Write the structure tokens for this entry.
Amino acid sequence: MELTFQQLFEKFTENYWNLILKYNLRQMSNNGKSAYSSLEKILIQAASENGVIRYLEYNSLQADGRNALVLEVKRVCKRNVVGALYGDFEGKFYGFSLKEERIWISTVVYAFLLKYKLEIEKLNYYAWAKLLEKINAHNPPTKLVDKLELATPKRNNLLFYRRILQKEFEEQCCFYCGRQLNEKVHVDHVIPWQLVREDRLWNFVLACPACNIRKNNRLPKKEMLELVIQRNEIMRVSDMCVNSIAEEFKNYSGDMMVNLWQYAKMGGFREWI
């Protein structure tokens, strides 16, 4: 599994946005050296330059503003975080290249993370909550776990994607059973949301309610996945793939989708039909 620094620290920035600016949760113990961590300083500085953005959701920020924040977070974390965590795990968790700005996670470790994803998330929230309670003891936070969960990506309203698939690309039949769709149309994550945690056009198909419910949190057969990849390639080079649609295919490739499918199987996700 490979990630660019841009992908990694974009999520990093998004997760900390609410915690630092919306909920005012301190991230650093008062050790007499500095009142704020480098990450806090970046976000607080951005808010001081434009007081309005403090009250906005991260995804509501203008693209230029988000990109500038991620660039600063990446710069700091590239220097202070990537190598430190590598050392903490004795190089067994992941490898990285500062020059190429990418990391690659051990196949064995990634398979383990996928298999025990939910359990690891719960342990992570518990440990994170205990740390933040200690650091913010002067101003005890309430519903801390809820705030941590709100700081991570959430599922969006999928009506936008349904309209694109139906109107722009004329998908009128259930991807799984082939029946004509009526007014009750579901938008299904081909690779389950539980794994991807991101809404992207390349991972969506239209389905009838019955198929979507039966598929639930499972994977399509390999041959069905190949059909999605073929469709995505048509979309990607289509004249209609402009502006917001083109953004949906940022960092996408057919190989990436196959790798996600394979890793999901390794992590215990079952196939359907």
Q: What stands out?
A: Residues 83 and 89 are 10 Å apart (CA to CA). The chain has a mean pLDDT of 81. DSSP finds 13 helices and seven strands in the chain.
